[in-house]
Amino acid sequence: SPVLLYIKSAVVKKQKTMSSPALSSAQPPSSQAGGLASSASPSTTQLSTTLSSTISSSASVLPAASQTSSPTVVTSKCTTVWPGGGIEEVACPTSMTTTSVVSANNGASTFKSVTSQSSVNGSTVNEGPTASVGPLPAQKGLSGGAVAGVAIAMLLVGLLIAGAIFFFLLRRQKKKRYNLVQTKPPPHAPVNDATRTLEKGPTAVTSEYATNLDDMLPQPVADDTITDAVLKLRDNIKNHVRTYYHLSPIPAAGVSQAHMGQLATAAGTSSARLASMLSNTSTRAETLRLILAWIVLSRCTGGYDESLLPQELAAIDMVIPGKDGSNTAQSAMYSKWKTVTGTLLHERFSQNKQNSDRKQKFAIAVADLDSIVAPFVQSGLEAQRSKNLDMILTRSANFAFLLFSQPGSFRFEFFSEHGGLVVFPGLVQTIGDQGQVLGPPRVLLEKEIAT
């Protein structure tokens, strides 16, 4: 009816006036609106009561450290319209609203409103959901400069962490280059008390380069390389004897035996026998080949007092033990020393340069040779003979350095077990490529024995 609509409009305006702007009010649910719009039927006498309840709460924000809960009583009027046209205003049943101000951690205050239910004519009126006021929005925040400062600080921290990780990884990589290696006996060494002593020896700190030293050294040359060099020298000596010596008769008394002692011992004969074979024209050529081969080749493997090795190497090689193979450990160390030294000095001594040291060694060798074979040299060919001897000695010196730079050790054998004369010696290897003593020696080239 128009009267009810007017009353409803007045009540709504009053609600808006009493509402505080700092708080949020909950709208009455649709069930309440339906109750206000309903009217009593004219045919009944039941009292229709319209309940309009406005809950208004006001609260003040307390300091952040306190919490307050205060009840607020809201009083409203109810208008009763009777069917006969009479209007009566009475106090409506009220509800109690409790407003709590709870301090949050960030300093903002939260409002909570708890509304009790009221009853009309003994029935409970559902007033809808309770209004809740959220935390007040904070206006404080980081300025642009502070944000930039934080970003720069985080960048610097990231760089420091990355640098620390890189430094740690670099140190680990360096530590991998160093390890403890326990000294071991050479692989060729037999198992005996000396070997066990070596296995229990102290550890040595070696670098990666020392551990991989064998990989840095050249491989031993093939046997064919060595034997080919020896065969070339054999042919050079044979041609030299055939070209520069005569076969005219010379009495045995005219042959000097003063410098034949070492050769006679090595060949297993006597100086007198050698002198007799030189005076005999049928055996002179073979004996001259033996003498020249002894003078030249014995200087290549240490079988003679003089050596064709460079003076720096010859002096050390003469005093270092381990060449004879009597001591297994010394032989292994001698083998390694030769290989390393030969590799380091290869560029210096492998060239065919006639320095003063080499010329002096060649002169001594020629003098030793002439002290025996001078009566048999053809006259008029001295210059060519000297040049040819220089070529033979140069090849012999290079061959001596080749043998020295190998891990194995070699020896020329002039001795004949069958009593015949060895025209050209055989070549055997006494220490293997791994530094192990070979027994019996390994034969690379057989002896040439006069028939």
Automatic annotation (TrEMBL):
Polar residues compositional bias, start-end: 113-129
Q: Which CDD domains match?
A: TM_EGFR-like
**Transmembrane spans:** 146-170
Answer whether the UniProt record assigns the keyword Aminoacyl-tRNA synthetase to this protein.
Answer: no
Q: What is this protein called?
A: Uncharacterized protein
Q: Which PANTHER family match?
A: GLYCOPROTEIN 38, SH3 DOMAIN PROTEIN (AFU_ORTHOLOGUE AFUA_1G13610)
Q: What is the lineage of its organism?
A: Eukaryota, Fungi, Dikarya, Ascomycota, Pezizomycotina
Spell out the residue ranges making up region: Disordered: 18-47, 113-132, 182-202
- Keywords of the record: Membrane, Transmembrane, Transmembrane helix
Bias type Low complexity, positions? 19-47
